[in-house]
Amino acid sequence: MPSLKDLAKECGVSVATVSKALNDQPDISAATRERMHAAARRMGYLPNAAARAVKTNRTYNRGVLFVDERAERPDPRIFFCRAGQLQGGSRKARL
């Protein structure tokens, strides 16, 4: 899995330039931005969600609680969604 450093080395620019280009910052030219996006696609770069969560203090996770009210004792199950994907969790909530 390539990192921002790998992209920067491949494109001959700084890590900061790659980061700004991938985040569509206005101080990066359109040509440079497109070159960074193309290199990221070619190399298979995906942002590190954990690193982004630390930096932005947001995880973008959503919790959904399902409860079977017919059961004698509730057995809630929690599922986490990120960017429209359902990641099956079967973690029992503490009651």
What is the number of helical segments per DSSP (H or I, 4+ residues)?
4
Order of helices and strands: HHHHEEE
Mean pLDDT: 79
**Rough outline:** elongated
Strand content: 15-25%
What does the radius of gyration come to?
A: 20 Å
- Please state the structural category: alpha+beta
The major beta sheet can be summarized as: 3 strands, antiparallel
Q: Share of helix among residues?
A: 40-55%
Q: What's the end-to-end separation, in Å?
A: 40 Å
Low-confidence stretches: 83-95
Q: How many strands in all?
A: 3
How does this model look, in words?
The protein has 95 residues and is of the alpha+beta class. It is built from 4 helices and 3 strands. The longest helix is centred in the middle third of the chain and has 14 residues, at 30-43. The chain is elongated. The model is unreliable at 83-95 (pLDDT under 50).
